[in-house]
Amino acid sequence: MARTLKLRIWRGNDEDGALQDVTVEGNNGEVVLDIIHRVQATQLGDLAVRWNCKAGKCGSCSMEINGKPRLACMTQISAYGDDEVITITPLRAFPVIKDLVTDVSFNYKKALEVRAYEHPVDLKPGEARMQQVDVERSQEFRKCIECFLCQDTCHVIRDHEENKKSFAGPRFFIRIAELDMHPLDTLRNRKQSAQTEHGLGMCNITKCCTEVCPEHIRITDNAIIPMKERVVDVKYDPLRWLGSVIRKRDGIL
Amino acid sequence: MAIDTPGTGVFSQGRAKLSARTLRTDKWWLTPFVTFLVLFSFIVYATFRAFENGKYFAQPLISPFYSPCLSTDCVKDSPSFVGTIFGTYHIFGMTVSPSLFILIFPLAFRLTCYYYRKAYYRSFWMSPPACAVAEPHAKYTGETRAPLILQNGHRYAFYAGLVLNVFLSIDAIGAFRNEKGQWGHMSIGTLVLLANATFLWLYSLSCHTCRHTIGGRLRNFSKHPVRYKLWTWVSILNHKHQNFAWISLFGVALADLYVRQVSGHSIRNLYFF
Ligand code: SF4
Ligand code: SF4
Ligand code: FES
Ligand code: FES
Fold first, then answer.
1. What is the ipTM of this complex?
2. Cys-Cys with A99: which of A48, B80, B103, B104 at CB 3.0–4.6 Å?
3. Nearest to B9 among A87, A159, A212 (CB)
4. pTM assigned to the model
């Protein structure tokens, strides 16, 4: 079913820019990325957009459609009414490079700050054995496609540029949780550093990251809140602290 | 307002230049608005009831707002056993409602609950009001400082909540009596108190702290098969924690209202047998 779509596409760079009205043909069954490509091919040859797989798996086509952080390749145009104007802007938490393309290098910097997995020294390659029940929780977080929609929508940095230096963001909280729940990782201070270095305490569990995640990772319930509870174990629970001292257990650390 | 200050948040230098604080076209304000109204109404009702200091006992029913009974008004008949050790309280000559000593615990429990935190941060504090809608605050430090750092004490409020659940369960069992205190009877009030206790247990058992304590804190589930099993069950409940939070909130208010009406002789507590 052919239909005429009314779009407003943001165009500009890191200094200036504005929404531009565009009218273009489309068919239900197509996704917003298809429409952007048609605009690019027929009207705005220099419109910049980042994409790769068109299958919701590379995480490149993140943008904001009618104000919601989404993957353009997974957003059906049939979801929008005939009279509706579809507004397409770049991610609003990161600096713009050109048009719909933003500079997401903030996230790469934060990725480097998370200490890598540390393998037990006494286990040679090929000797490691893990049970499925022990890796299940971490596996959910491995579904992440690094689209950074969660980072974009998180109000801690979206609304407060100054927090970027001290806050890693939900994508990296699931990374930290993944490692802290990993049956073999030997690095033991992940809980403390989650709080002191990566800004876990800044998160107020308002769940916007979970709402926008295209992989439906339950970021807040399964990673952030469990990590907050683990932080309480080592930092804020005097009874637990006492227990661990008396019994000399390192299980919780 | 801070949000319109150039150079902060979504208006920061380098970000896409747009004047709207959100471009969302759906009714994003509806959920926080309704949440605010419901929570606010509950607070008003609970405050009124806490200070009313009356109409909380009608043999064999006791209001959840006044249980365990700490006043002499209900001790002789109440199934909750702490009764007599406390008498009636006076501070500067004014009678203090015994409810106040009880309600601080569920208040702390719900205030520090991970779900309610989300609900009131969004609806009362608008931090953020909805996803991708700029919040109206210039500064934000989350839960890193006093007073919000106290949210980390949720587990203690959870333990207190469990104790109260035990009292409320005893009250529900005690409601299998008639007005003369004889056992083996059942009334609408029995169902009301039973439902209230059930919802509160579901709310507590689905709590994130409960999930953590029961097994979530373990690194190797395979070494703790029983705790792993319990953890999977609690995880199923935990998925519905938000629903239990609301149902139990309504449950407790309605149970109190029912006892109040029976106690004030506005309605009769009908007996099945
Ligand atoms: S739950 Fe926490 S990390 Fe996720 S969007 Fe909200 S504040 Fe950010
Ligand atoms: S957690 Fe989800 S929203 Fe965040 S980067 Fe990964 S896939 Fe994207
Ligand atoms: S193009 Fe790969 S996720 Fe959209
Ligand atoms: S009661 Fe809601 S998280 Fe504990």
1. 0.93
2. A48
3. A159
4. 0.94
